[in-house]
Specification:
Number of domains of chain A: 2
Largest interface: A-B, 44 and 29 residues
Structural class of chain A: alpha/beta
CATH topology of chain B: Rossmann fold
Helix content of chain A: 25-40%
Structural class of chain B: alpha/beta
Order of helices and strands of chain A: HEEEHEHEHHHHHHH
Radius of gyration of chain A: 20 Å
Order of helices and strands of chain B: EHEHEHEHH
Largest sheet of chain B: 4 strands, parallel
Strand order of the largest sheet of chain B: 2-1-3-4
Number of helices of chain A: 10
Number of helices of chain B: 5
Shape of chain B: globular
Radius of gyration of chain B: 15 Å
Number of strands of chain B: 4
Number of domains of chain B: 1
Oligomer: heterodimer
Amino acid sequence: MNTPEVEIRERVRQLLDDDRLPGVLGLRAEHGHVGPHVFNSADDLTALVLEPRYGMALVCQAILDGSPKGRLGVVARGCDERALIEMAKLGQVDLARLVLIGLACSEQQARECMCTRPYPRRIDVGEKVAGVAPGDDARVQQLLAQDVQARLAFWQSEFNRCIKCYGCRNVCPVCICDACVLEEMCWVERGKIPPELPFHLIRAYHIADKCILCGACESACPVDIPLTTLYALSQARLKELFDYEPGLDVTQKSPLTTTLEETPLHEL
Amino acid sequence: MSEQDFHPRIVAFCCNWCSYAGADLAGVSRLQMPTDFQVIRVMCSARVAPEWIIKTLSAGIDGVMVLGCHIGDCHYIAGNHRAAKRFALLKEMLGFVGIHPDRLRVDWVSASEGTKFQTIVTEFVERVRELGPTREFVTAHRRLDTD
């Protein structure tokens, strides 16, 4: 059996040669480094790799914004696809211009990411494996077992390492505001680190109805704040309260923007 | 400090059309209630952004109330639907990071419900007294901050 990499390369070649797609976005290994690259039919596809995992949604957006028309292929994992769907809901990308090559992650990869859905809607390469539901996340469960004081102590010790680099916000595919409240002095004091609790809580709340738990924020964090633990909790509650999961369907509206008749609120 | 000596500082966001009028009615009817709260009039309960609550609580206010029109009676048709949903989610998140979710209360008071306003305020002040000051939370944070 072929490795996923070989299968993906074959699929990319098909899209470029048979479907006449101008380019396919993937990861390229060059001089021992890996980075996003738009492969065209003249490129050597053996340089296309799948590891390390890297979010493609923001790269897609930059490429689509830079060229007014034309289609683009993307090697997309489950998280990339969900991010693109959420971005499409927010008017950031045009899904009609994208051709996704669905790549399902392996069981080990899913475990490393604590991924909720390690597979895209349409799988071209790989086998579908089950993810971890946000509510079953061991880190969330462990905190919920403690009392309020202990949770506060835990989060304070984590948040006090924050150097306010804004990395979590910058890599987030669903953080899209031009004017960010986290840069406004009335919410976050300037020139002071670590920022107080509102910094993290406001961000967590702002993405609560669109976070797709890709984990980009946590891997970008230079001081390893367990941000996905906080976001996993909000996703678990979103599911329980509104029976809603972001990133699944472009036509589904966020429950926080609809009336109680449209999406009822289930009391916990 | 005993529970009785502690006078919590509470902020009540009241919507212009129902709850503020309800609070007004409670006042002119001379209904007795604790005076530990400040009313901030907003046009709709949906005007209250979650940031406000987060900032208020972390700035040392001991409890926040958001009062709006009854579901179905919103002056803007469905503003309070959004408020109900937002704050249900926010409460869970506050609890998870260690701010007791009972410090936030969302309820509906119509313009004719002066007594309901009195009951809600009395109950809430009582509950916040039990929970104690958030100062502990604020100073703990500031102290770690300056280390």
